Amino acid sequence: MATLASRNGYRAKIIFLATIIGIVALLHYLTPTEPHAFHKLHIILRKLYFLPPVIAAAWFGLRGACITTLIVSVFFVLHAFLDWPGNYMEQANQVGEVVGFWGAGVISGWLFDRQRALLQEVANANEETLLGLVSALDLREHNTRLHSQRVREYTDLLARRFGLNEKNRREIGFGALLHDVGKIAVPDRILLKPDKLTDDEWKEMHKHPEAGYRMVKRIGFLKEAAQIVRTHHERYDGKGYPQGLKGGEIPLGARLFMVADVYDALTSKRPYSSPMTYEAATAVMLGEGDRHFDPAVLAAFMAIAPEELRLIAERYQELDCQSE
Predict the structure, then answer these.
(1) Is 47 noted as a catalytic residue in this protein?
(2) Biggest alpha carbon distance in the chain?
(3) Which of the following is catalytic: 183, 193, 217, 223?
(4) Is 315 contained in some domain?
(5) Are residues 194 and 316 in the same domain?
(6) 227 and 253 in contact (C-beta within 8 Å)?
């Protein structure tokens, strides 16, 4: 569904661009060059040919700008061939305009491509920084190595099933990755305690979603992810924490995460329990029904091929072994 939406968006841009070129060409061809008043309008309309190459550059980069400029040039040159002026100055103006089309298209296309590359570099650097932070947090608990990264991938599988676009999946992915960042505020004596926690210690532990939310929301590109950090321990029946949200009150990203998180917890190696098989883990999750999980999300998770989940687990198991 996400791919379909992306293709539809791409197609809509192509149609819009073609429409603009068609309208400009039609007005250009239908407007006479005489008398003088119409000639002025004719010159103004020719300047509109600069618009499509710049739009194409912004949407499709250098390649799209060059293709659009070529189409615009063909329309322009064909009109010049049909109505070539006898005035040498006007001839020079028209040749200059064609050169200008290419200058506008190529330069703007290159600049937009360069801007995208720089933004991608910044995004990659931000992501690497977050991965380093999350790895340190996972190691702090000793028994949850790479947990956050696995959960992020499981959550992304679900997000794809729901047809979310790349931007939304990225935001949800960051939320899944950073879900436990608030545990940095939990004392080691509680977080690493091997025995059962007391009621007061549980109260302290339950503060970590709000603590994480306060930290993450300050970062501009993580504002949407912060909502998942805050609500990742809510339950579909309203018995979760910290806000006791119920059903659709819980952000979709958090509802996707809940299923992925529990699955990873059940199938990962931990000191207090052996990892479950896919069959055993999904049986436990189905037993929770709509108490813990959104039924639609759980159904979507059950529709994912077990092999896809195993491949993710095995890949991170290999990374874990390499880092030891």
Answers:
(1) no
(2) 95
(3) 183
(4) yes
(5) yes
(6) yes
